[in-house]
Amino acid sequence: MADIEFFWDPGCPWAWITSRWLHEVIDQRGLEVDWPLISLRILNEGNGPRPEPPEGFTPPPGFFERMELAQRTLRVAAALRQEGDPSKAGDLYTAVGTLIHVDHAPEKAMTDDDYGTLLESIGISRSLAAEAHDERWEAVIRTSTELGLSRTGRDVGTPILTFEPPDGPSYFGPVLNRIPRGNEAIEVFDAVSTLVHVPGFAELKRSDRGTPQTA
Length: 215
Description:
This protein has helices spanning 13-29, 40-43, 63-83, 89-102, 112-121, 137-152, 182-196, and strands at 4-7, 33-34, 160-163, 170-172. The protein has 215 residues and is α+β, with helices and mostly antiparallel strands. A four-stranded mixed sheet has the order 2-1-3-4, covered by helices on one side. Helix 1 (13-29) packs across helix 7 (182-196), helix 3 (63-83) runs antiparallel to helix 4 and helix 3 (63-83) packs across helix 6 (137-152). It is globular. The mean pLDDT is 92.
């Protein structure tokens, strides 16, 4: 059984930073982590029209391609967790998250053949690349998203972490703008773990997050 469940959306830079911090802890503490899904697109449903970008705003090269890659990855991950090897979901997140948040690639839409090659490189059947276009996985993504929200309430973002799942405490965050490494990662983990297990603890937050340093 997993020590932690980490609900992830591959397009979120804040979730990416938190996941890299958690990998630092995994390497040092040997934690077992499960990687269920959460969709920012679903979280933002019902929030009314999105604000228009500032006049003159030009998305960085590859922005929409990276967002499309994130959506395709949620579908592939859903298929992997239901019909493949769920333990590989974390590897898929690392591979695609590195492309999006570290390499800031692709500059053009990734073909199914390219995606299949990426899957093969991390020990996943390249045939799963076709699942990126199968809308039946939307229901699975939604169910996983709703599971995370059922544990925290709906006014949250990504990631959601559950400690000692499925009945342990669940929280949005921690939100970090850089990746704690080495002993600092352990100090942060121990502090967070202590807080979330305090009966009645609800929230610790500030709105000034700084620029996410995803590399």
